[in-house]
């Protein structure tokens, strides 16, 4: 399948370029397909390519020494990933895994540098992409460093236990995130942490509070 | 009847990202609107909710206290 010029034009990096310039860039773009749950990038490895998602979704994440995952971003069609190491020359700062079948457009690091030299007008758009990334990560750092989100999630669960007379309100992770003043990704991690603490059990669409006292103890940590 | 994610067809823009990430094939695009195919295979991974930009899919949790 040929790389579509309209798709390249829809990418913020290249949105200010004309058809002739896009045509030259198209020659440097290669396609990569992957199935569900395939690793596309490994954190710490040397960075070879910049990727744009053409179809499908990619999860970008870091893994702790204990094997816990923290999602940094979910990359959707038209968006890029692995931008940072392509420009700073360092290793991949995070891993990336497909969330379903995917089609990626890749550009080799050296080719991207040549594109920037040949078409310096794209630099402003590259800066915009990187600036958005910084803004998103600063917000995530704030959530992870300064907020005891886990105690707030514990409190939310406690306050929304279904009553004896029937079902209590049902909550999505997005709603819990809004209540806790954090990102959905951080709520997902908090629920897993509460499960590891033995306070709750995730059973499909149910969150079962298995140890009320343990949950209350976690709630008492000042947030 | 298996509990399934909830669809808001008014919000669905038919992008199909959720169909691609659903590992149990519980979602399909019918006339450009997401439709649920009931299956016990759905393990509530919530990936469909996570990728949906318009908030058309939700995977709500019921919070219950385990009987002592």
Biggest interface and which pair forms it?
A-B, 36 and 27 residues
Poorly predicted runs of chain B are: none
Secondary-structure-derived class of chain B: alpha+beta
The tally of domains of chain A stands at 2
Spans of at least 5 consecutive residues with low confidence of chain A: none
At the first level of CATH, the class of the largest domain in chain A is: Mainly Beta
For the biggest sheet of chain B, the summary is:
2 strands, antiparallel
The CATH architecture of chain B can be named as 2-Layer Sandwich
Strands in their spatial order, largest beta sheet of chain A: 1-8-3-6
First and last CA, distance of chain A: 52 Å
> Using DSSP, what is the number of strands of chain A?
10
Order of helices and strands of chain B: EHEEHEE
The average pLDDT value of chain B, as a whole number, equals: 92
Q: Using the alpha-carbon principal axes, give the shape of chain A.
A: elongated
Count of helical stretches of chain A: 9
What about the largest sheet of chain A?
A: 4 strands, antiparallel
Number of strands of chain B: 5
CATH topology (fold) name of chain B: Alpha-Beta Plaits
Q: Number of helical segments of chain B? A: 2
Mean pLDDT of chain A: 91
Distance between the termini of chain B: 27 Å
């Amino acid at each position: 399948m040929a790389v579509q010029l309209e798709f390249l034009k829809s990418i913020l990096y290249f949105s200010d370029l004309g058809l002739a310039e896009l045509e030259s860039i198209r020659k440097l773009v290669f396609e990569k397909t992957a199935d569900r749950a395939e690793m596309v990038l490994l954190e710490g490895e040397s960075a070879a390519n910049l990727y744009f998602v053409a179809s499908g979704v990619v999860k970008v994440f870091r893994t702790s020494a204990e094997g816990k995952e923290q999602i940094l971003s979910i990359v959707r069609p038209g968006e890029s990933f692995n931008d940072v190491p392509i420009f700073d020359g360092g290793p991949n700062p995070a891993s990336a895994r497909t969330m379903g079948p995917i089609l990626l457009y890749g550009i080799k690091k050296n080719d991207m540098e040549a594109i920037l030299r040949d078409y310096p007008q794209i630099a402003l758009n590259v800066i915009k992409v990187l600036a958005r990334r910084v803004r998103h990560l600063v917000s995530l750092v704030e959530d992870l460093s300064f907020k005891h989100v886990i105690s707030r999630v514990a409190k939310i669960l406690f306050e929304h236990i279904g009553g004896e007379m029937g079902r209590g309100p049902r909550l999505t992770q997005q709603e819990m995130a809004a209540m806790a003043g954090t990102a959905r990704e951080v709520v997902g991690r908090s629920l897993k942490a509460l499960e590891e603490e033995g306070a709750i059990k995730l059973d499909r669409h149910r969150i079962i509070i298995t140890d009320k006292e343990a949950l209350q103890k976690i709630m008492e940590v000042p947030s | 009847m298996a509990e399934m994610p909830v669809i808001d067809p008014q919000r669905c823009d038919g992008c199909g990202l959720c169909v691609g990430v659903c590992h149990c094939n519980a979602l399909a695009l019918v006339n450009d609107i997401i439709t649920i195919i009931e299956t016990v295979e759905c393990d509530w991974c919530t990936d469909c909710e996570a990728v949906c930009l318009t908030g058309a899919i939700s995977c709500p949790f019921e919070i219950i206290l385990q009987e002592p």
